[in-house]
Amino acid sequence: xxxxxxxxxxxxxxxxxxxxxxxxxxxxxxxxxxxxxxxxxxxxxxxxxxxxxxxxxxxxxxxxxxxxxxxxxxxxxxxxxxxxxxxxxxxxxxxxxxxxxxxxxxxxxxxxxxxxxxxxxxxxxxxxxxxxxxxxxxxxxxxxxxxxxxxxxxxxxxxxxxxxxxxxxxxxxxxxxxxxxxxxxxxxxxxxxxxxxxxxxxxxxxxxxxxxxxxxxxxx
Length: 220
Prior knowledge:
Elements: E1 2-6, H1 10-21, E2 25-30, E3 45-48, H2 54-60, E4 67-70, H3 75-89, E5 93-98, E6 115-118, H4 119-131, E7 137-142, E8 147-153, E9 174-181, E10 184-186, E11 199-204, H5 209-216
Parallel strand pairs: 1-2, 1-4, 2-3, 4-5, 5-6
Antiparallel strand pairs: 6-7, 7-8, 8-11, 9-10, 9-11
């Protein structure tokens, strides 16, 4: 894929390195001379420009990008980049970094955001996961807030131990997408058994999260 990243600070550069390892084509757009360091990531295309300016995005050829990542440290900039990417260049997928959790409500379809990534929220979620085994933890909001990526670790006393994936009677707006077990990533199949300690990742709407929690704890 061709991916444009607005913001070449520490976060933007880290994302670029990961994507280049995946053999994607990466463009870094940076307005600060201090952060404009093409020699640090020679495999990426670099552009010294303001990503909030329509002319800059036109010069960057944003219409040819499959994904745009707004990764600056300024939420206002990330929102403007997201909106321009979606409305002016019809970019299929727009991912935006949320720096201040108080601004998270703005990062929606109305501003062109498909996926909002809040570092503070994710860190808090990781803490909750580490401390509260068995509790459902929301990791990320997807698709303009219509669904969330949530995680729950099966506690030692889980009634699901030994049962099969097909035995999970999930609500219509929820799907089990992965099981993490002992360093392995398992794509769940109907006959796969469940074990205590499994980290289960679901995509679900907010209104069914309580139902998922009840199922995991055998309360249905």
